[in-house]
Write a structure and sequence with these properties.
The protein is of the alpha/beta class. The protein is about 40% helix and about 15% strand. The chain is built from eleven helices and eleven strands. The strands form three sheets. It has a seven-stranded mixed beta sheet. The protein is elongated, with a radius of gyration of 27 Å. The termini are far apart.
């Protein structure tokens, strides 16, 4: 009996191991399961291959928010305009991807590097709490006509001007933009923020329109504008310079008033018009991509280096893929 008691655990263990091994062998050789496993393996190999970039990026890589700890706080203020009908489809998605990323960046003395404000015709309580109470209900009409969009852009500017401390940079993006915050901050760092700068990507050449600002009826304002669908950025110096003509806090309608004087002027063109009036030229940023460029037409390298991308399809799950795939 003593011998049996000593041998019995080892015998049961061997029997159990043999049964598991046989079951696993049978499971893996069952054709439907085997076929599915083969598909998973091929998908994994394809994903690994797709992440290989033929031209390595030579720029300094910052891969986590703590890598930006050397930047001073209040470096960037971002505004996004949206509307209630897109809260579920667009706003919740960008809030859970690039906006939540942006709020993680901490600079010197643990101060936030990026602040995000959202303008809409209704306030989403969850998103508003997440971004620190900077979701504001617009007084502008909710339509998509050009004058109303100018009204909303003026309101976005005033969100920046209303801050107790003005950030070194201001950027605007739309609710269908995906922003790679790592690339955006790296791009802004390349430029001298002590100068009046206007960054964006133009979709056309120089434009000349009559001067309705100075009152010179024969005068013309020559300018280029950054396509709003790609986003645009201005330094604090530039924002202070254009404030009298774009903000409603200085009296009047701001940018909306300008658009009323030039019927048919869209909000992004109006911003370029004002910067052109103040002799602030557009600095081209090729890595800012708008709705005029199909996401499917961009190379892997283009996507990796992109500051901004836009979803020009109804499938916004692309943003979740970009969030996982970003640098």
């Amino acid at each position: 009996m003593m011998v049996w008691r000593c041998v019995r655990p080892s015998w049961r263990f061997l029997v159990t191991i043999s049964a598991v091994a046989l079951s696993l062998f049978a499971f893996l050789h069952y054709k439907p399961i085997r076929a599915r496993l083969d598909i998973y393996l091929l998908q994994a190999q394809h994903q690994q291959a797709s992440l290989q970039v033929s031209h390595p990026i030579v720029l300094k890589q910052r891969r986590c928010p703590s890598d930006f700890a050397d930047i001073e706080g209040d470096f960037l203020f971002v505004t996004v305009k949206t509307t209630k009908q897109y809260h579920r489809l667009r706003l919740n998605l960008i809030a859970s991807t690039w906006i939540s990323d942006a709020l993680l960046f901490k600079g010197r003395n643990d101060k936030p590097v990026v602040k995000v404000a959202i303008l809409s015709d209704a306030v989403d309580d969850f998103v508003n709490t997440m971004i620190g109470g900077r979701m504001v209900k617009s007084r502008c009409p909710s339509s998509h006509n050009k004058t109303d969009l100018c009204c909303k852009q003026a309101a976005e500017f005033d969100l920046y001007y209303g801050e107790p401390k003005l950030a070194k940079w201001y950027c605007h993006f739309d609710d269908d933009n995906y922003v790679n915050m790592y690339q955006l901050l790296a791009e802004l760092e390349r430029h001298d923020a002590s100068k009046p700068l206007y960054l964006g990507k133009s979709s056309r050449g120089m434009v000349k329109l009559k001067d309705v600002i100075s009152g010179n009826e024969k005068g013309r304002v020559a300018f280029q504008f950054g396509t709003g669908g790609a986003g645009f950025c201005l330094t604090r110096v530039a924002m202070k310079q254009i404030k009298p003509k774009v903000s409603r806090t200085t009296g009047g309608l701001g940018l909306e008033g300008l658009c009323r004087k030039l019927p048919g002027l869209s909000d992004d063109v109006a911003v370029g018009y004002v910067t052109g009036f103040y002799k602030i030229g557009l600095t081209q940023v090729p890595t800012m991509h708008s709705h005029l460029e199909k996401l499917s037409a961009l190379s892997q390298d283009d996507i990796r280096k992109a500051v901004s991308l836009i979803n020009n399809s109804s499938n916004f799950s692309n943003f979740q893929c970009l969030q996982c795939w970003k640098l």
